[in-house]
Amino acid sequence: MEDMKKSTQLIERVQRRLSLALWGRSLFISFVCVLTAYLALLLFSRFSGYLREWFPPESLGIVVLGSLVLSFILFRKPEKEQAARLIDQNQGTKDLFLTVIMLEKAIGNYKPLVIQDAEKKATKIKPATIVGYQWQKRLATSCAGAVLLFLVLEYAPQFDPFGEVQAAEVEQEKAKEFQSTKKATHARLAELKNKDTGQSDEESKDVKMAVENLKSDFRKMTPGKKQENTKTLAGHQKSLGGKWRKIAEEKMKSLMMKADQSQKFGGMSKNEGMKKWNKELQEGSTQSLMKEMDELKEQLERLTKETDPVKREQLKNEIQKKMKEMESFAREQTNSKAMAAALKRAMKQMQMAQSKGIKPDEAFKEAMQSMDLAKMELKEIAQSAKDMKKLEEALKVLQMAKKVNDKSGLDGEACENCMTLEDYEELYAQMMGNMPGDGTGGEGQGKGGKVDEEDTGDKGFKTEKSKSAITAGKVLLSFKTKGLSDRGEAQKKYNKLFTDLKQGMSEAIIQEQIPPGYHDGIKKYFNSLEKKTEENATKK
């Protein structure tokens, strides 16, 4: 067979251009189809409120990807016969090039003539004249459609005739809130796990070290160095008192105030359960509350496995009620914002199990995590109560040590066998009991007798009346007129004012964060006033 290089190359080049042109046409048709379908669904979503989650800004990529995929599906690569026939139609060569591609199967002596004629004409034909690219109009149309689609997506108003948009927004907010509560719980759990709470000891390391330093200095006391001893004890008193006030102010103030108001002045807690929890926490115990929380966790686990809708709803209501009581106790009684927040998150996470965008198993799992966090926060409160109790004990022993030092001087050698604060308290109590009193009799081992007084000489005293009120801002009695008052009226006013003043003083003890070493003296003073008042009333 003679050489057909030029004609064959022409047919192949025309075939490639025809393939590209046909694929471009398929791509344009695909783009128009996909864009139309996307725009129709988008308009349906905007007017009805359905399928709203299908159309974020990133969804525009679906149009491009869909157009490419559909164009390859629709595209059919042209054969050589189709390219040759197109050349013949365009150049009017009467099937010359179609005959060229069939010469291998043809029989006859005319082949050389056909090849010669095809090669001669192939040199004069340009493939671009056979297959032209008409891309400008299609590209302009595609750009216009893309711009229209973008404008509709960004600026078309969203209607909500069936309330679907509002419901979807509520679910979306719940999902965001759930993730936020999840992060908060895990962050706080990590913080508490890395924190030294002193759970293995009666008190935290900081308090334990302060008490050990105090006991160490007790053993170093010298009887002949009262001033040095006093200075050392004063330093410990300042340090221990500061730690006590810090814990009371930051963590235990509300708990102490509730206890003081309910126990000292006849108040009552909201219910007996909270009263019991309150009392235990003051003693550093969390037994009842921990038991309640463990039962709640067991109920949550049962709730995840319960299939009966009626029993499931009853169990859920019971859990929510208990959680609400604990959250109220944490917020109102202990003032523990962290514990209240953990319990509140547990309630929310349990409720979120019904949301469409949140898996129920995940929601219940996070609720149990929040319950674990609440237990750890409870241990923090109990630890603070233990620390305060230990500090109160240390301050009490320190006060006794100061009294012994003022009288006879402290001797550290007497403390060699003392190991605990109770040992020191017992030792100092014995030493105080053996000390002679310097007063005129009464409590203790006083020497008795009359106190010598010197009545001669000018003492500089002035006879005048104090202008200050003797009660909390109210005048007990006025002397503007002569005569007797109504019998019993002044006594009633005095009793009322005295009760109010006593109540205010009790609150002031807590609010001012006065260490417990001074509480007894204040209470004894008011009790003595009350006793004298009762005696005077009896005499009258």
Question: Quick summary of this structure?
Answer:
This protein has 540 residues and is mainly α.
Task: Write up what this structure looks like.
The protein is mainly alpha-helical. It folds into two domains: 4-155, no CATH class; 174-260 and 275-426, no CATH class. It contains 18 helices and two strands. The protein has a two-stranded parallel ribbon with strand order 1-2. It is elongated and about 150 Å long. The termini are far apart.
Spans of at least 5 consecutive residues with low confidence:
259-269, 437-451, 466-472, 474-479
* Approximate helicity band: 55-70%
In percent terms, what proportion of residues is strand? under 5%
The secondary structure category is mainly alpha
Order of helices and strands: HHHHHHHHHHHHHHHHEEHH
Count of DSSP-assigned helices:
18
User: What is the terminal separation in angstroms?
Assistant: 151 Å
Q: How many structural domains can be distinguished in the coordinates?
A: 2
Radius of gyration: 48 Å
Count of DSSP strands: 2
Query: Which geometry do the CA atoms define?
Result: elongated
* Main beta sheet strand tally, sense and closure: 2 strands, parallel
Average of pLDDT: 79
Give the strand order of the largest sheet, numbering strands 1, 2, ... along the chain.
1-2
Main features:
540 residues, mainly alpha, 2 domains, two-stranded parallel sheet, 18 helices, 2 strands, elongated
What's the topology here?
Elements: H1 5-48, H2 60-74, H3 80-91, H4 96-100, H5 111-122, H6 127-130, H7 136-155, H8 164-193, H9 205-219, H10 226-263, H11 272-282, H12 287-305, H13 309-333, H14 337-351, H15 360-407, H16 421-433, E1 436-437, E2 445-446, H17 489-511, H18 519-539
Parallel strand pairs: 1-2
Helix pairs in contact: 1-2, 1-3, 1-5, 1-7, 8-15, 9-10, 9-15, 10-11, 10-15, 10-17, 12-13, 12-15, 13-14, 14-15, 15-16, 17-18
